[in-house]
Amino acid sequence: MKKHHILYIAITALTLGGCSSAGSSLANAITDPLTPKPHGKTTLAINDQNGNGLLRTGNDVADTINIAGRNYGNNSTLDIGHLWQNRLTSFQYILKANGRNLEDGQLEVYKRSYSAIVGAHVRNRYAPDGTQQQAQPNEFQIRSIQGTLTQENQLPTTGTVRYQGHAFAGSDESNGRLDYSINYGGRTGSGQITGLPDFGNITLRTGNLDRHNSNITGVAESQRRGNGNYHLNIFGPNANEIAGKAHNFTTQQNGGNLIYNREVGFSGSRVN
Q1: Region 43-147: CATH code
Q2: What is the pTM (predicted TM-score) of this model?
């Protein structure tokens, strides 16, 4: 009898799926249980915000970004509700201005409940005449960090909160681990990133908490790539998460030339 009931439910759901979008969702939930359902942060803002916009690349500003075959203009949104949390999801992208390609490569999106980080593994840039210029090997830039910032009156005023999570510098350097603590009473934070072979251990030196903007900045020391900086923001109604980047590392080779620009994104959730 139980088997008949299950079969009846499945058939009913599939029948409804042909009649309405609600039925389709129900059918998908039953027949495709491995498809992730909307959860966590659900959208990404597409804009040309200086320093944090997905339409920015160096000194150039695009008017369109093509992500996985679909065009998005300024002040549009990308649905990421169905993406898995706490792992990277990759999309091919092309940045364009006035119909001309500026840059292409692969976007890496990492999201949690209240925040998301978007990095760009740049493959090619294009001159004004359309000439293709291959990017430096392993070039990876954190283009945008978005989410629901913790308001100043929501931040703890005492105690130390520990955050643990992941760090990445592209799809080939995606297994890093983050361990970071914020002393909310002392208004400081520090931690470390491990598990990224190209960087070795990264020490996130003590930085000062800016309560008004819910962020911390400090020095990042990499075993293999020298000194850089890091910046993070605090997200969620209860200071639930942190998300940030480590960048501007000083790795040099013969002659003092920078090998390539590679940045690290990191994200963690509180564990106490």
Answers
A1: 2.60.40.1980
A2: 0.84
